[in-house]
Amino acid sequence: MLDVLQGFVHELRSAGLPVSMTENLDAMTAMEHVDLQAREVVRSVLAATLVKQQRHRPAFDTVFDVYFSLFSPAAEDRAALDLPDELFGTAGGDIQGGGAGGDLTREELAEMLLRALQSMDLDELRRLAGMAVSQFAGMEPGRPVGGTYYLYRTLRQLDLDDLSARLVEQARARGEIPDDPLPGRLAREEQEARLRELRRLVEEEIRRRLVADRGVEAMARTLRKPLPEDIDFMHASRDEMLALQRAIQPLTRLLAARLAQRRRRRHRGSLDFRRTVRASMNYGGVPVEPKFRRPHPAKPEIMVVADISGSVASFARFTLQFVHAMASQFSRVRSFVFIDGIDEVTRFFEDTDDISEAVHRVNTEADVVWVDGHSDYGHAFSVFHERHEREVTQKTSVIFLGDARNNYHASQNWVLQSLQKRARHVYWLNPEPRGYWDTGDSIISEYGRYCDGVYECRNLRQLERFVSTIADA
Amino acid sequence: MGERFESVADVVERLRSVDYLADDDIASVTYLADRLEKPVLVEGPAGVGKTELAKAIAAATGSRLIRLQCYEGLDEAKALYEWNYKKQLLRIQADREHETSWESVESDIFSEPFLLTRPLLEAIRAEDPVVLLIDEVDRVEIETEALLLEVLSDFQVSIPELGTIVGKQRPIVLLTSNNTRELSEALKRRCLFLHVDYPDVEREKEIVRVRVPGIDEELAEQVARVVRSVRTLDLKKAPSISETIDWARTLIYLGRSEISPEVIGETLHVLLKYQSDIAKARKELVEK
Ligand SMILES: Nc1ncnc2c1ncn2[C@@H]1O[C@H](COP(=O)(O)OP(=O)(O)OP(=O)(O)O)[C@@H](O)[C@H]1O
Ligand SMILES: [Mg+2]
Known about the structure:
- The complex is a heterodimer.
- Helix content of chain A is 55%, strand content 7%.
- By secondary structure, chain A is an alpha/beta fold.
- The two termini of chain A are 51 Å apart.
- By secondary structure, chain B is an alpha/beta fold.
- Chain B has 14 helices and nine strands.
């Protein structure tokens, strides 16, 4: 088992999960106390010893599924290593499914699935998921396509929407789902949950067969998903967008708490003489309990000026969301968005405490198009200068967001030059990799010349680091 | 090694006997904590049963629960022990007339009767089985976290005036965190990690059934489903298990045996705490 465990820890580390020496040892000791036939217990126990951050758990689970599967090398040696079959999950055929259930019609399979979904019989569902993959995925040995492709093919053939509609119909025939909105909604959500389970089983099955075909190492490599804080804003898939969305709130909360603590520690506060003396009265005049004053730290004011044109829209959105979620760390946060025209959107954030609603209003209501809706930094900046420069003071930090791809318009970078003289700081965050800067129509250096810092900001990790620096400054 | 539980299944069963419903992760980690004698860091949103888990383990194993509630500014004196200054001052003053030698006064005032035992020391000195709960550890400052780490590593403490006190046994130790700040790597390394999240419908329904006397299965299921639905909305604060329970109790109290939009409308404030959340849920579930 120890060797198997070492291999597993190695995989975790190459997936980017930090595993320390102590944790590694703990996992080994833990294995002495569990029944190796109970695969899910083994999973829980390894997770408890090796993963100390919940956002790393999905990555852990994927590596676990791949590593402890029947087709991994460890599984092949399991007899010699004296490990139980159960540790490696359910049995099954090779990549093509070994003909299991090969001659069912699509309709027959759908009928069986409906029945299994109705009773939520997990074993049966897993068996059927296996059949579906054999029939529909068209998996072939050595074919260099990813799991997503097979998943898509299988699901399309299974036609989950159709299954879902038929589940509703059947339930209605039994008089279970009246057409009222509320019971309808609850029933629908229940079905969605069940179909999600089916989808998960299909995914698991595909992964299992891919491991069989390509080996653990290769699979682990293709499955390596970035952690939420490393997802690239510019190329996030729909699922990744959701993961980002979910990661923002906890991240900002942690950061706010950390900043507050740092600030407190720095200004520990001076001795409050009067309160100390008053407290000492309880102890016959001996000042045993010194009392301190609470300091009032000064907080900077922030103006964010963001390009929200197509290519950088999601970057702008997450950054605005992040900064507004951190609003308590600043004396005020004002936001401006532009494409070729510019509009202030602070009110959307101040009107509501629901940041996602505010972002929605930014996207639908802000007046940002001047001529043709293609980025024109120069024009937007000169309007900003005209309307708002007077409001910039020594307390203000101005942060520009964008890729500085100006469609070959005039840069008007004198706006930044003049801002830099008035403001406390001027910063620029660019969501493109540094290597692309100043290529094509990017003129980042022309603006960067008048900034106190230009930062690459491609993911939450970099964004967090930046916000933490300015909140502290 | 601790042997309070026979197996993971035994954990599930005995926690259930004290009305706590554990999922796979909770049961496995509890079992492991007992076997490895390592503290568990339990993390998760508010009201998912972190504190309750410690209480349930104590009840299931017939142990005494010792609880250290953390807060900002908690220090050694409140967590571990302190000398009773007032009593010491009185003792010194009382002595002015008797003129005992300073040495003997000193050794007197730094002895057991002048010691105020705080939860950590109490747990170390316990002779009977205990469960130590260090609740909301994310609220303490780094210095205090370091102190906790030290105590948890050796389970002993040295008091300069009294010498070293070594724990006779290793209690099950649970630290809970609402994750308002990142805990130190050192502390995390030392602990087993358990993330508790909102339960699935099946488990929440069971929780409602054991915690709300008089509720039938049908209504419990409806309650759990509505709560799941509410949690999918984008809310400032999603309903916790305790709010689910409160809501179910309210329904029973009002004599509602079935959930309709009207019933939800008149009781939403039990489930949700923010006006904006209530408005959102009303729009989705009541007015549609
Ligand atoms: N698994 C469970 N089985 C039975 N009851 C539970 C369970 N989990 C939670 N509860 C109920 O939910 C209530 C709230 O749980 P608890 O106070 O332990 O939450 P918590 O996670 O400690 O929250 P907080 O972060 O606010 O301290 C408990 O009093 C209990 O009634
Ligand atoms: Mg609690």
